[in-house]
Design goal:
Layout lengths: L9 E4 L12 E7 L21 H10 L11 E3 L4 E6 L2 E5 L9 E4 L3 E4 L4 E6 L12 E5 L7 E2 L4 H11 L14 E3 L12 E3 L30 E3 L2 E3 L13 E3 L4 H4 L2 E3 L12 E2 L6 E10 L1 H9 L4 E2 L5 H11 L5 E7 L8 E2 L23 E5 L5 E5 L5 E7 L26 E3 L2 E5 L6 H10 L3 E2 L5 H12 L4 E7 L8 E2 L25 E5 L19
Parallel strand pairs: 2-28
Antiparallel strand pairs: 1-30, 2-26, 2-27, 3-4, 3-12, 4-5, 5-11, 6-7, 7-8, 8-9, 8-10, 13-14, 15-16, 17-18, 18-24, 19-24, 20-21, 20-22, 22-23, 25-26, 28-29, 28-30
């Protein structure tokens, strides 16, 4: 899902923070009990651009997290009280709505496939007077090529042509159970009669096509071509026929016997047995698709179709494990790191916190179109940003047995207040204070420690909202406890609570001009985003 907020994001700066760059730094302290914050809030998500043509693009943007199955449907006309089907080689309206002859699904290239006849809906541009139903709208072999037949449809175009060439009757059709009415026998409809999905309240145009990206095989990750012809039979979905191991596969051209191009189909499962490498220490699973060449958004969809996402790396151990699996390969592979959200900074696609960094020197660059990241074997697994549309291999990651971090339990309920001393503000299980003193990060942390506190750590969006609305307000910038002074590029909180939430400023985090930026601030105006502020007084918080 896509989230847009106006709260100030974070930026990393040198801990000494030269005043020539910014006029004001504040520090914010928090003191609290051992209670943990409430469940993890999701960080910002990117909105995908779908691959392929317009139909696929629309569907992928709206439904990219839906399962691959469940795509068969039936056209039902309310006025005719009948369903659209195929009898012989002609379209028909039938009282029966349960047979394969009345079942349809979208397939490759925006075509409509009929399950019972294995034919596709088409509109001929040639001579159709010899057709039995004397209509240009009909069903044809799916491998017929233009210009003889028009295949590509938007849903609205299908409905328009159905109403034009296959009008519904002015009274319900009451044929015998096994009969149907041909298009040429049907009279014009009454006003207000319409098509809808049979047995489903969803919109008729909700069942559009979603590409199914293959893994392994010999097609470099190309999507399935549906329907495809194999051993004299048409297949409108993945099949295990022809394989002794039972794995689902598909062809990536319409005629497998001719081209022999294929790949395995994505399957969602709760294990990591086939096609995955498992880290025994963390139980995270990884899939390296070295043979594939997909764009960043296509690669992410491929991972999601397997119940996974593009790779996120949150710890040095994980980076080391990944580097070991990359040994012997020469490639740049897509990972989940991106800054596609124009209102935020770099983030992981799976919402993991961005606390560990492994950029190459002079990376990330600020090229406008380079909003997605790769991991490069040539630089010992370091990261580089690239144009998201470039076709590259990719790495998927899933955590089949993942449980919430014990720190993210529900103990920070709104009704649990912490008793705070005078001058501190309470929020859930913590106390917060903003202090007027202009100091660098180290001095700010020491001042907080003298009060038996630490620079503030943030773990949820509600906590950030409280800070922004009740404490930061018109203050331009203030220190928080996030830093990488203990280990470069591995950010930690000063109070040693786990980093489960990050909210970076656009273009952050980065080591600007290769200078060490080890300490983090909340920086920028509050709601509304375009409010103009005069310079605030020299107030430093702690």
């Amino acid at each position: 899902m896509y989230l847009s907020l106006h709260w100030p994001p974070w930026t990393s700066v040198p801990c000494s923070h030269p005043h020539a760059q910014r006029d004001l730094i504040n520090t914010l302290a928090r003191v609290g009990g051992e209670e943990e914050p409430s469940e993890v809030e999701t960080t910002l998500q990117t909105q995908l651009q779908g691959p392929g043509g317009n139909t696929e693009k629309l569907e992928l943007r709206l439904h990219n997290n839906k399962p691959v199955n469940g795509d068969v449907f039936v056209f039902f006309h309310e006025g005719a009280q009948g369903c659209l089907g195929v009898q012989g080689h002609s379209l028909s309206l039938s009282e029966s709505c349960e047979d394969d002859a009345q079942k349809w699904k979208w397939v490759t290239r925006g075509r409509l496939f009929n399950l019972g006849s294995s034919l596709c809906l088409g509109l001929t541009t040639g001579n159709y007077s010899s057709r039995e139903d004397a209509s240009p709208l009909g069903v044809y072999p799916c491998d017929r090529e233009p210009p003889l037949v028009r295949w590509t449809w938007y849903c609205a175009q299908v409905l328009e042509n159905l109403n034009l060439y296959l009008p519904s009757p002015s009274h319900p059709v009451n044929p015998s159970a096994n009969s149907s009415v041909k298009a040429s026998d049907v009279k014009p409809p009454h006003e207000g009669l319409k098509w809808r999905l049979f047995g489903d309240d969803q919109d008729l145009c909700s069942r559009t096509y979603r590409e199914i990206y293959t893994i392994q095989g010999n097609s470099r990750g190309l999507p399935c071509y549906l329907p495809f012809l194999y051993d004299g039979q048409w297949f409108h979905s993945c099949t295990s026929i022809g394989r002794e191991d039972g794995h689902l596969w598909c062809a990536t051209t319409y005629n497998y016997s001719k081209d022999e191009r294929w790949g395995f189909c994505p399957v969602k499962s709760n294990d990591c047995e086939t096609f995955w490498d498992t880290d025994p220490l963390t139980d995270s699973c990884y899939q390296f698709n070295f043979q594939a060449t997909l764009s960043w958004s296509e690669a992410r969809i491929s991972c999601q179709q397997q119940g996974a996402d593009l790779l996120s790396i949150t710890k040095l151990h994980e980076q080391t494990y990944i580097n070991g699996l990359l040994t012997g390969y020469s490639a740049a592979l897509w990972i989940g790191l991106n800054d596609l959200d124009i209102s935020g900074g770099w983030q992981w696609a799976d919402s993991s916190p961005l606390k560990y960094l492994n950029w190459e020197n002079d990376q990330p660059s600020h090229m406008e179109e380079e909003n997605c990241a790769v991991i490069r074997t040539e630089s010992s697994g370091r990261w580089q940003n690239r144009d998201c549309s470039v076709a590259l291999p990719y790495v998927c990651k899933k955590r089949p047995n993942a449980t919430l971090d014990p720190f993210t339990t529900d103990s920070w309920a709104d009704d649990e207040k912490y008793e705070c001393d005078v001058g501190w503000q309470a929020f859930q299980a913590g106390c917060y204070r903003l202090t007027s003193e202009k100091v660098d990060w180290d001095a700010a942390q020491k001042t907080c420690q003298k009060m038996e506190a630490n620079l503030v750590s943030l773990h949820t969006l509600p906590e950030l909202e409280f800070i922004i609305n009740n404490i930061k307000r018109d203050v331009e910038e203030l220190w928080i406890g996030l830093h990488d002074t203990a280990m470069q590029m591995d950010f930690q909180w000063t109070d040693h609570t786990p980093v489960i939430f990050t909210y970076w400023h656009p273009f952050e985090p980065n080591n600007f001009q290769n200078t060490p930026e080890d300490c983090v601030t909340i920086w920028g105006p509050v709601i509304p985003p375009f409010r103009i502020f005069s310079l605030p007084p020299f107030i430093v918080g702690c």
